[in-house]
Predict the 3D structure of the following.
Amino acid sequence: LGIGLRRAKSNFAKVDSTGTIRKLLLRARSVAAAGPVGVRTNAIACLAFADFDGLQKTVSPLLDQHQPQSVQLAALETLDQFSAAPIADQIIRRWPSFTPNIREVAMRVLLRRTTHTLATLAAIERGAMMPGDIPFNRRASLQRSKDQHVQKAAKRIFGHQTVIGRGEALKKFQPALKLTGKAVPGRKVFEERCQT
C-alpha cells in the first residue's frame, strides 16, 4: 500500500481519514529513537511511508556515529525513498564520521538523484568531501551524465584524472623498488600517517 501511494505521489497521511495510520507512524517514530535495535530498524523502515517533514526530525539523528550501524543503514535506506534536498546535506555533514560500510550506502543515496549528486559534487569542490570518495567507476558516468550541470561539475573535478593500465602503472613505479629505505624518517612518517 505504501509503495503504491508513493508511486501515486501520495502518502499515508493524505489518505488516513481515521488517523489510525498516523498513530502507527507516530509510534514508529518513538520506537525508531530508542529500543532494541531490530525493532528500531523495522520502525525506521516504516517511516519511509511518512511525509518527509515529520520524518526528517526523527531520522536525521539516527545517522549519528554513536548509533548502531544497522540503525544508520536503516536510516539511509529510508532517506533514500525521498528526493528532498536536505537529505544530501544531512549525509554530507556526517560523512567524515561514517564507517566504510555506511559510506558505501550513503554514496549510493547521494548519487541516486540529480539534486543529491549536485550537492555531493559541490561538497567536493568546497572541500567537505574528497574526489576519491566517489567510486572510480562512477566518476566516468558522472562525466557523461545527461544532466549538463552534473556533467560540467564532474568534468571540473575529475576531468584532469587519467586512467592508465596496470602494466603502465607497474612500469612507472619500478624505480621505487631500487630505493634504499631510511628507518628513522620512515618510522616518523609511519607514526604520523599510518599508525592510529
